[in-house]
Design the sequence.
């Protein structure tokens, strides 16, 4: 048992030092607009947008994959217009506060590293994950996904733009109930919300020795 501990303990400290010697963590802010899609807005992007602001934390697994957590605050609003299409029953305007937090996987199309200036400094990417939102008093799970592009103009600084759509498991953001539809809501008629905007992140320093491979 003692011999096993003599082997395991040094290995643990070596692994711990390896993990924390990498500069892989990004922290930043995002700002843009939030909008709703549902019974009142079937397909129009940037429908009655509200200002939104949030934070981003990213852990870069390597130059192609990252895990990300983000949270933002915005608003959702809309109203029914009979000039576009007909909705039976009571319709009206709505305006609600939106707070969302999510965990995402970020996948780069090109090799990317926020420490490099002449190479690996630009990439389009996609995101996919799970989220939870507070909308007008309701707690609503959602499936966020989207696309973006990012660029590193200065070492450690990444700027970019992103469009994220969130498919909810809820059909009441707009408070509309179809009087001819008494069936249980299905996946295709649940509401959506979206965030589109820009962000800037900073590669956090690690004061331990940094692995040269990931510099």
Sequence:
């Amino acid at each position: 048992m003692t011999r096993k501990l003599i082997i395991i303990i040094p290995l643990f400290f070596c692994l711990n030092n390896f993990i924390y010697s990498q500069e892989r963590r990004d922290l930043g802010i995002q700002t843009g607009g939030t909008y709703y899609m549902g019974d009142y807005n079937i397909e129009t992007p940037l429908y009655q947008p509200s200002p939104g602001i949030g934070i981003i934390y990213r852990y870069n697994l390597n130059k192609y994959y990252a895990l990300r957590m983000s949270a933002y605050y915005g608003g959702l609003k809309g109203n029914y217009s009979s000039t576009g299409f007909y909705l039976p029953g009571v319709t009206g305007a709505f305006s609600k506060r939106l707070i969302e937090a999510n965990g995402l996987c970020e996948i780069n199309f090109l090799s990317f590293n926020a420490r490099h200036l002449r190479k690996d400094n630009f990439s389009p990417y996609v995101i996919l994950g799970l989220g939870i939102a507070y909308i007008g008093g309701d707690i609503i799970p959602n499936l966020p996904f989207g696309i973006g592009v990012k660029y590193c103009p200065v070492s450690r600084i990444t700027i970019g733009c992103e469009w994220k759509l969130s498919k909810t498991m809820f059909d009441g953001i707009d408070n509309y109930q179809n009087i001819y539809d008494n069936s249980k809501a299905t996946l295709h008629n649940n509401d959506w919300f979206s965030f589109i905007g820009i962000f800037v992140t900073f590669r956090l320093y690690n004061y331990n020795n940094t692995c040269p491979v990931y510099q």
User: Anything to note?
Assistant: The beta strands are 25-37, 50-60, 65-78, 94-108, 122-135, 138-154, 157-168, 192-203. The chain is about 10% helix and 50% strand. The chain has a mean pLDDT of 84. The helical segments are 2-20.
